[in-house]
Amino acid sequence: MEEVVIVGAGIAGLATAVALKKVGLQALVLERSEGLRAVGAALTLFPNAWHALDALGISDKLTSIYTPFFKGYVTDVKTKAIQEVRYGASNGSGDQQIAVNRKVLSEVLAEELPPNTIRFSSKLTSIETQVEQGSSICILALEDGTIIKSKVVIGCDGVHSRVARWLGLGPPVDSGRSAIRGLAVYPRGHGLNQEFQQFVDVSKRAGFVPLNDKEIYWFFLCKVPPKDADHGGDPDSIQREVIDNLAKDFPPLYLDVVGHSDPSTLTWGALLFRHPWDVVLGNLARANITVAGDAMHPMTPDLGQGAGSALEDAVVLGRLIGSSISKLGKLETQEVGLALKSYVRERRWRAATLITASSLSGWVSQDGSSWWMRFLRDVFYKFVLGRAFSASRYDCGKLC
């Protein structure tokens, strides 16, 4: 019997476990993989993410090894025109933009948890609920035959979430675009400024941002579907495809970054999202079961808000579930349902807004070559993008 079971040890799952620990509750985290997952190479974390990391008490562990960026440039591949984008000034760790290694973030979160919190190689096969002594109890069956009972289940199991399906949420939809991501490594240093560089072309958008003086995170978004499996197949073929075909007309600096990629970090996958009206109208919690992160609100990466919103979810869940803990340190089952309903009310519209803004940003950035689409892109990068990032200054609050 567990107080809380979290399905999935990604960013959302680990952060939620840390948040619950902060309020005095130990969760069991079930992860189907054999170790921590780090698909995606790196993450760009905006002020809302740093507010959440402050609440979790780990922001200083990341700011000590990664440097913030405060401006970037958007280059039109065809016309060579360059526009500057300002991301605002820093007022401490809660108001800055920093790109971090995804694996490092996962490890920092995992280090905050007690031993044996994460159970690897644990694949969920079914979820049931029953009433015991007037309270709803969740029953989880694992592939190895283990049966776990829990007062609360939080699905943080990604875009293809089994917990989301149990709640009745539909599968995410294909945006018609895909993303190639990687981490470039320069053993002797890359010598570039700490700036976010983007390059736009018809139906293509690419960019890179330094993590530190030796590592650079890069991405390439296009309408070409992945060639093989979900994550693109052979790393060498992904690298050649970008350099020799997809980005052959992009600036030499960008191609040099791609050429320095660590093969183990290269991925190619379809960009999926959940329709915002499914989040607004869908059943996000039932019988003391809910979802967080990509399991609730998968979105395109065009505003860099996937990880930030997952960290927000974790802090809000920790704060609200923490209010259901008795003086003896146990969850009051009757109160948990109310806490999850409050969580859904707080997160539903926020998530739907971020999904919509990200999708709109991606459409403006990549779609169409007509004169009016080019004009719209110019206006977007010059006047709208900075305001769009105002959503990234959201503060999810503190933990008790």
UniProtKB/TrEMBL annotation:
Domain of life (superkingdom): Eukaryota
Annotated Gene3D superfamilies: FAD/NAD(P)-binding domain (3.50.50.60)
Protein keywords: Monooxygenase, Oxidoreductase
Domain FAD-binding, first and last residues per copy: 3-356
InterPro entries per UniProt: FAD-bd, FAD/NAD-bd_sf, MOase
GO terms, molecular function: FAD binding; monooxygenase activity
Pfam families linked to this entry: FAD_binding_3
Keyword Cell inner membrane part of the UniProt annotation: no
Family: Belongs to the 3-hydroxybenzoate 6-hydroxylase family.
Protein name, entry field: FAD-binding domain-containing protein
